[in-house]
Amino acid sequence: MSDLKVPEIAYKRSIEELELEMTQIDERKELTKKNVCFLFAGNKTKAETITEFLQLCIFPRCLLSEIDALYCADFMRVIHDLVTPNFSTIICYDGLIYDISYSIASCSENEAIRYGRFLESLLESVMSWHGDKNKFDKECATHSGFLTVFHNAGNTATKTTGTTQTPEQLDYDNFRHVHHKWHYKLAKSFIFCLDSNDYIQIRNVLQVLTVLLPIYPKMTTFHAALERCIKAICTAEKDRRHDFFCIS
């Protein structure tokens, strides 16, 4: 029938429904902006606020289901896009990625898969900024969430006087260094779990790596290091644990 007649009424109804949904999303964003401003308000430092946010809001929910895992990652991105006061995107992502070995060890098998989904969505945002300078300049270059203090070990004046360094905007080149550090920290955590000889840690990290495979690892050195560990597991567990061997 579409070759003879266009269902205009159905099309108009669908367009109206989509427009209504877009309006509702905008309204929810405004409500979210007010709520998150309240959430991150207070006299605590950014680091303390972010730690509480991750412990009370993100970690418990991202393990409930794969939908919740994606929701948590998207929610963090929305908080960033809303330029939420007292929210540091850099501190938040750094807290999530810096050492995930304990998080992996505490998961069940299904939770490890969900945690992998959460990390995958998280890394997609980070890698999109890393891969496109124009996108970084538009979304991060002047963003308050990318204010950071550059620690200078050789600054004797700061050491002797005890003065606090003024936060500076993280530019694209420095973000690339931070991005490399995050990938290194992930690889370090994964290798720690793979070398642990603990069944739970090895099983969980293999589940996480399986989920992350389309986007991580991107760097040859980290890929080679992880591959060596996984090959060692394959060799050691080939005749003992077929589940490890199959996942590896």
Protein architecture, described:
The chain is an all-alpha fold. It has a domain at 40-150 and 159-212. The protein has helices at 8-39, 46-62, 66-81, 89-97, 101-105, 109-131, 133-139, 156-161, 172-194, 199-212, 220-237, 242-247, and strands spanning 147-148, 168-169. Residues 153-161 have low confidence and may be disordered. It is 71% helix and 2% strand.
Main features:
248 residues; mainly alpha
Global outline:
globular
Given as residue ranges, the uncertain stretches (5+ residues, pLDDT < 50) are: 153-161
How much β-strand is present in the residues? under 5%
Strand order of the largest sheet: 1-2
Number of strands: 2
How far do the termini sit from each other? 51 Å
Helix and strand arrangement:
Elements: H1 8-39, H2 46-62, H3 66-81, H4 89-97, H5 101-105, H6 109-131, H7 133-139, E1 147-148, H8 156-161, E2 168-169, H9 172-194, H10 199-212, H11 220-237, H12 242-247
Antiparallel strand pairs: 1-2
Helix pairs in contact: 2-4, 3-6, 6-7, 6-10, 9-11
